């Protein structure tokens, strides 16, 4: 009985207390406490900000935003939330509503020390530049249009730290920090470009149609992307479908037989977005070959992209592209050489939330055909020269997972590749196959103003063995105007099919090169320190020091004469090299004029011989001026000046093939002249849908000695038309 009376007394006392509470003062149950749902976005581009800390002021309660920038935190009306994340200004926002279904939108201002751009990282995940301690340059569509770049090399060669190198007889390549094309990984939407297995790399073959941006990562990137990334990575990223129906077309014509045309259409209907682009370009010059006469180059491109929202959070993508190229160039004895390249590649991808993080699955396929023929006429002769087609086939299958947990963002995944080279009479057994399995993981840890990263990738191949490569990085936002960074990484380049299984015979030159199944992967250890100072959004200065030590470089070694009396060379791991230097870049906006200037110093040497690496200029610089003029509405002017200093040519024994990047011959046999090139373009907005352009490349008409990629002065005129259903 007493317990019952005691319980009744408790209820009565509680009722009296509630009656004594004034009606204007809410009790705890009516205080507006609830789960506040919100999203953190960048004011610069409106994109989600991942792993931002959201803390309720006056308490220890804090949460982190997910990969969509969303968060949920317990608070009440009148509370203040403190939001901060590396690369953005901190912000305090009041809680004004805790009703279910209401979303608190928090817009953060990006710091000037980190460009508001995105870059691709491990597992094909796209991150902000502020989430990486690496040196990354992102060239957007605005810069591509400013220099009328129809191919990737026309834009990349203007960056300090990047040099254009010849790849005779008809190709050109880009070196990064002293590393040539086979040691710079080139990707399109994160997948390798065609031609690498046949060693038919040509950066000039890559079109910029439908390109949203080009990402240039300097320094070893094997942890993020695998083999071939000793010097860095160039990733060409295609634009996403537009929301409204958009039709885009370009016509351009100029000197040296330059003719270009592109046409594109894009739209999103309901859950499905698509983009379809086609292009054609030709010239009376061949990239990497400065001879006139019969030279000719023509390329057709086709690119398509379909993206589907399977649900609110799951998406799918299908990307297919193809190209066809014909090159013609003069040979000795009134003969012409012909190279025909045909390629197609594509991938299917799905991604969405899983196990508290985000899961991505991608399947990639690629086909490429190379054929070389000769003729005294302007068309090739069937069955001439090495008329048998060489084919490469690649398949890559990726499963990647990422998760933001507190101050950490984890990335992990596995990738399996199958590669086949078919080259009758060239490769032992007429074909070669390789299976590659890669496992990778990385942790990005944010501690206040400091970002720490640590990761590794293990690669196993049925052709050459295995390699494990780690990396660590640090970024420190010391103040809102100064960001420091540092990296230490190990990179590698796997020996290719041609180096292991390929035999090249040149009876006219009196030599042959044979493969070597005992080759080891080339490896490097790299360190870099740098920083960005940006006192405002109108001015910035970027400086970076770097050093790369490379060993087991593959080079030719003389083995004596074969049974027929020809000189025989074999691919062996013989060379060691070091590249080190300084990169600087400054930007300022004054009275509507944007000036960008950069300078790069490079010292690249073969450590075994003490000689410099061939065609590596010690000094490169660039100046770009861009301005819009009020005198004539819609008039834009762009001027780019680039300087590449003289560079030595390192010789090789008489009768040997064209010099490689790490030749062992003792002596400098020539000097590549310095190049001062000036490009300019004027663009006039005729209407809201049409733009007229007039410009010129190499306006100074320079053709330095032994500078193979240099062309004559070239003027051009273009018309760009764009129509959008949203207008």
UniProtKB/TrEMBL annotation:
It is found in: Cell outer membrane. GO terms for biological process: siderophore transmembrane transport. Residues 129-233 form the TonB-dependent receptor plug domain. PROSITE patterns: TONB_DEPENDENT_REC_3. Keywords: Cell outer membrane, Membrane, Receptor, Signal, TonB box, Transmembrane, Transmembrane beta strand, Transport. GO terms for cellular component: cell outer membrane. Belongs to the TonB-dependent receptor family. Residues 276-699 form the TonB-dependent receptor-like beta-barrel domain. Residues 1-31 form the signal peptide. GO terms for molecular function: siderophore uptake transmembrane transporter activity. It is a multi-pass membrane protein. The keyword Magnesium does not apply. InterPro entries: Beta-barrel_TonB, Beta-barrel_TonB_sf, CarboxyPept-like_regulatory, Plug_dom, Plug_dom_sf, TonB-dep_rcpt-like. PANTHER family: HEMOGLOBIN AND HEMOGLOBIN-HAPTOGLOBIN-BINDING PROTEIN 1-RELATED, TONB-DEPENDENT OUTER MEMBRANE RECEPTOR. This is TonB-dependent receptor. The keyword Metal-binding does not apply.
